[in-house]
Every structure is written in structure tokens, then in C-alpha cells.
Amino acid sequence: MKKYLFLSIAALSLTACISAPPGLERSPFTIQRLAQIQAEDYACQCKKARLGGKILAATALKDKTKLEILSLSISTYSAKPLLDSSVDGRFIAYLPGFVDPAMLKDRYITVAGALSGPENGKIDQADYAYPVVNTERYKLWRLVQEYYYDPDDWDDYWGARHSRWGWGWGSPFWRPEPRLRYNLY
């Protein structure tokens, strides 16, 4: 009985690790990728969008902060931008109030809010129509470097370590190299 209770608690705690931040759950949003936006979605200004990506530029305005964001696909459950996904395009998000632009540059973000009409701008010398999200909720993510060992490397290490001869790959001086990956928290 205690074993099942422990497993239940462990499963619940692990699901908490992958749930989206409050207000960014996926259910109320009709638009979750830039490719889903249709021309008629701008007319009503009532469509809810949940988008994310890397902040390219931030500008402090009088009563809000304007962000230009390179759109990336976001995780269905955690709402984190997927670092290895392909770029969807760009969009503009307006955050309520003042947020220091220096703090936002090159950060990752997920925004949720109402989709409003497109805003014309330029990317270098090319004209571009940016979809605009009037943000109600957002989450800034921290990019963290993590070192890890591939399980296959450890299998090779332990198999070679206990070899019969005790030299070469079986030498205690050989260790697998840690690998580097990036995660958002």
C-alpha cells in the first residue's frame, strides 16, 4: 500500500514539473502558431493567442512595452518555446506597463492575449506585416546550460572498466565526456 502511495505522489509531483504557468494553459487559446492566423482573425480582435519565442528587440513606450519576437513553436503542456524548432516568423507583443528593455533582450518568452490587427514594419529592408498580441499574461524563461552524460557512454565506460586486462579503454583514467544542452526554466 505504501508503495502505491509513494508512486502516486511521485507521479503527481512530476506532472507539476511540466504544467504551464498560470494563465498560459493551452485550453482557452485558439491560436498557438503564427501559421494558424487567418486574415479574418484580425477583424474581430477577439481571438486568443498563446505564442512564444526569442525576444529580438524591446522598446519602452509611455504605458506599455513593445517586443519584437522571433516566433518558435511552444510545448503543448509546459508552454516553453522549443529551442530546436523551426522559426515560424515574427510577431509583436505589447506588455502592459513598463518592463526594462535591457532585461528583455535575447530572453525567451511565452505570451498570451488577444490578437489584434497586423502592424506594418521592416526586417532590414524588407516590408513585413507583424501579427500583434495585446498581452494579458506572459512568462519570461531563463536559458540554462546543463552538462549531462549520455547513458550509452556510461554503459561503455562500465563495460570497459571491468575488462579483463585493466588497460586501454579499461583504464580507470578513461571517463566519458559530459555533453552540453540548453533548457528553459
TrEMBL record:
GO terms for cellular component: outer membrane. InterPro entries: OMP_Slp. Residues 1-20 form the signal peptide. Keywords: Signal. It comes from the Bacteria. NCBIfam families: slp (TIGR00752). PANTHER family: OUTER MEMBRANE PROTEIN SLP. This is Starvation-inducible protein.
